[in-house]
Write a structure and sequence with these properties.
The two termini are about 25 Å apart. By secondary structure, the protein is an all-alpha fold. It is built from eight helices and no strands.
Length: about 160
């Protein structure tokens, strides 16, 4: 399963595939991260009102992924924090994402404000300043400077 499955409007088969993969290999970082991303998307768009439970499960999956590969799920943790209304957590996780080794696979600075998960913070001053900082780093082919502040798991 991958993002294509749920991008194609097939979240149930994607979720089943992630569950099967994690049953065989509970420490599969990509499955943990991508399954959490699927759940975050489902929670954000869920008309049935079960989003809180989906976000809780996504949080558990991302906590597992963070324990196994610190920084790898940082972008999804930022999205989760934003959806939970935790602006300090969102900023810390975005900084972690754009200063880490996975930097190359992340949305470009100019696309961050278009991420539906980040809409709750997109108009804030700190977000605008961070996007500018990321853009400047991208232009130089660099990552953000690493912060010494730990990223808290609490969303």
């Amino acid at each position: 399963a991958n993002f294509l499955d749920h991008a194609m409007g097939q979240p149930e088969p994607a979720a089943a595939a992630y569950e099967a993969a994690l049953a065989v290999c509970p420490q599969h970082i990509l499955a943990l991260n991508n399954y959490a991303a699927l759940l975050i998307e489902q929670a954000r768009t869920d008309p049935a009102g079960t989003g809180a439970g989906l976000l809780g499960k996504a949080s558990q999956l991302l906590e597992q992924a963070e324990a196994l590969a610190p920084g790898f799920p940082a972008y999804n943790l930022a999205c989760l924090s934003a959806l939970a209304g935790n602006q300090p957590g969102t900023e810390r996780w975005l900084r972690a994402a754009y200063s880490g080794d996975g930097f190359d696979g992340l949305p470009a600075a100019g696309d961050l404000a278009e991420d539906d998960d980040l809409q709750g913070v997109a108009g804030t001053a700190w977000f605008g300043a961070l996007v500018k900082e990321i853009s400047e780093a991208e232009q130089k082919g660099e990552r953000l400077a690493r912060s010494d502040a730990p990223c808290e798991m609490e969303i």
